[in-house]
Amino acid sequence: MSKMDEDIANLKGIGEKLAKKLNLLGIKTKKDLIFYYPRKYDDFSEISKVTDLKPGIVTIKAKIKQATGRYVRRGMHITEAIASDETNSVRLIWFNQPYRAKALKTGAEYFISGNYELGRGRFAIMNPGAELASNFPVNTARIVPIYRETEGIKSNQIRKIIASIKKDVEAIAETLPELIIQEQKLLPRNQALLSIHFPKSTADLDEAKHRLAFEEVFSLVLSALINKKDNLKTLASKIPFDEDLIKSFVESLPYKLTDAQRKVAWQVFKDLEKNIPANRLIEGDVGSGKTVVAAMACLLTAKQAKQAAVMAPTEILARQHYRTFSELLKPFGLGGQIHLLLGSMKPQEKANAQKAIESSGSGLIIGTHSLIAEKANFKNLALAVIDEQHRFGVQQRKQLLKKAGHIPHLISMTATPIPRSLALTVYGELDVSVIDELPRGRTRPITKIISPNSKARLYKELDNTLGEDRQMFVVCPLISESDMMHYLSAEEVYKDFSEKVFKHRRVALVHGKLKTEEKVKVMQDFTSGKIDILVSTTVIEVGVNIPNASIMLIEGVERFGLAQIHQLRGRIGRGEHQGYCYLLMSDSSAPSRRIRALENTSDGFKLAELDLEIRGPGAIYGVSQHGVLDLRLADISDTKLIARARNAAQNFLDGNNLNDYPELAEEVYRNRTITSLN
Ligand code: ADP
Ligand code: MG
To answer: What radius of gyration do the chain's Cα atoms show?
Structure first.
């Protein structure tokens, strides 16, 4: 056991009781203590003359003239003291610190730091820290770190303990190679840690933070790059490109592929030809035509007498994919080889699908997480496609790959782009392709925010549009009325619309609690135009394709995430008509920056970056599912820092052996649970 792993209970001055409290803060060893970063700093470094004091945080160097303590009210204790320097005197006041008066030595000179403010009728320095000027100041007269505290342990105690192990901080091992430290002009690690706990100046502190932030991102990126390198060692089965086949497939389509679709399809074909498993994410806004790209990859696979699996997050979408893929691929002799496997299927149906999947070893299996949950064992899975991958957890992805018994090629698709900063770090092992173009003639929906008192007028307008044979989605945040939340539920809106506002239209309701057959029936009726208005929850969020639906109302818009709303509105305006998306506020307060962003931008990437900025990496994109993304000093949206760290990591990997850097290896190893997708 290294010295750094020594139990803090063994440190001088730390008894068992204090050690227990430190444990509560996650501090068990010396090393934990050294890496217990302050949560903020109070700048007490500037020493003022008493006569110059202005309200706010101040530090003086002054002699204590007198100090007295007394109880003023029941239980309330007050200590008052006078401190003077050569210019003037000032009052010091402490509440409920009865030991103060005795501890202060009259006549001795102190550093005194605290807030100079109005207290008990006159200006005074309230609850200041005071330390003998003859000692090295820890709590005063410097930039003082403030630590996260807990019951019975205060920042000043933590400061004292860390000051007592300063030698250990100095002795902490370097992680980064000397070359990188020089190239990037970084502080050595021990110096940076010293400055984090004992900053000499703001500039000093900034430099220290930069060094430690760099290291965080560097080791994260390095770990992702190593995953990627390791992936290269795994064998996958080659799926060779068949030009004639793809050509005739493309000619069979009722439309021309966009350039972006061609470009991305080409990248996928290149991946499949290799015997290392592909790990590619296809990003493309809703409606950009990702499905057909996946269909081509599946076609190549099945024609090689291998299996491909397509996993979708909902049964509605899986069924739709089953129809789409069947239509697209039947002309190529794959009709009988396309199977649907859903949890809700009747036992006999399910058994048939399972049998087909296990025996044939070739063709296409489409399903939901049923592909993982059900008994079916793939016989010869060469390609796994995960649609709307942001809806799946890392675990589910891993399980699917595991079920294959080996690592197949993996193509995932999403309309919720990974912000660039995450793509380069946490997801650094992924190859990303972007379909950055919508099919010609496709327009983005026009989005408008609607306050509650404009609803009636809006409904009247919409009724005219519906009269022109258009259809409308209404999305609500809840199924049923709730006492807890003030949002309108799908059931309430359905009642209101079908009995009052739109009683002359055909209104239907769909949500997750309905039986599958009911859901399927309603969706079919909506698709075939038998329904004008479909009131729903987010079950329709992903993938569903109904070209004639050109209007969408989103009730209680405040309840939804940006990416989610962007997905939702991607459901409309898929046909020839301009789409309109109305964001209905649940009260008449001013819409937030988040919601206004939806009105102003139709760029899913920008919205994802904004979500990242506002809500942080934990909330979006399931980063929290990856374990702790422990960036304590680095800002995940600092693209400059990321670019520098990424370059350095790539260079490092090209010319070094990680094993020669045990401290770094330890960090990288810890990160791998976060960054590995396989
Ligand atoms: P998403 O990328 O959101 O999954 P889809 O693959 O569902 O989009 O495609 C949306 C619609 O666009 C489908 O009806 C599909 O047939 C159609 N489509 C796909 N590519 C093209 C294209 N190049 N030109 C015209 N329509 C296309
Ligand atoms: Mg899709």
So the answer is: 32
Ligand 1 center to 439 CA (angstroms)? 7
* Residue 286 CA, closest ligand 1 atom number: 3
Rounded distance from Cα 327 to ligand 2 centre (Å): 16
Cα–Cα distance between 412 and 269 in angstroms, integer? 14
How many Cβ atoms sit within 10 Å of the Cβ of residue 584? 24
**For 574-581, what is the mean pLDDT?**
85
Query: Distance from the CA of 113 to the center of ligand 2, in angstroms?
Result: 61
All residues at 6 or more sequence positions from 565 whose CB lies less than 8 Å from its CB, including other chains: 554, 557, 583, 598
pTM of the predicted structure, to 2 decimals: 0.72
Please check the confidence at residue 627 and state whether its pLDDT lies above 50.
no
Per-residue pLDDT at 628: 46
Q: Give the largest CA-CA distance in the chain.
A: 99
Are 431 and 274 contacting, i.e. CB atoms less than 8 angstroms apart?
Answer: no
pLDDT of residue 626: 43
Nearest CA residue ID for atom 24, ligand 1: 439
Q: Tens digit of pLDDT for each residue in 586-596? A: 888 889 888 99
289 lines ligand 1 (CB under 6 A): yes
Chain segment 314-345, per-residue pLDDT in tens: 888 899 999 999 999 999 988 789 999 999 89
290 lines ligand 1 (CB under 6 A): yes
CA of 153 to the centre of ligand 1 (A): 60
255 lines ligand 1 (CB under 6 A): yes
Residue nearest to atom 15 of ligand 1 (CA): 289
With CA atoms as reference, report the closest residue to 534 among 574, 487, 476.
476
Given a cut of 60, whether residue 620 has pLDDT beyond it is no
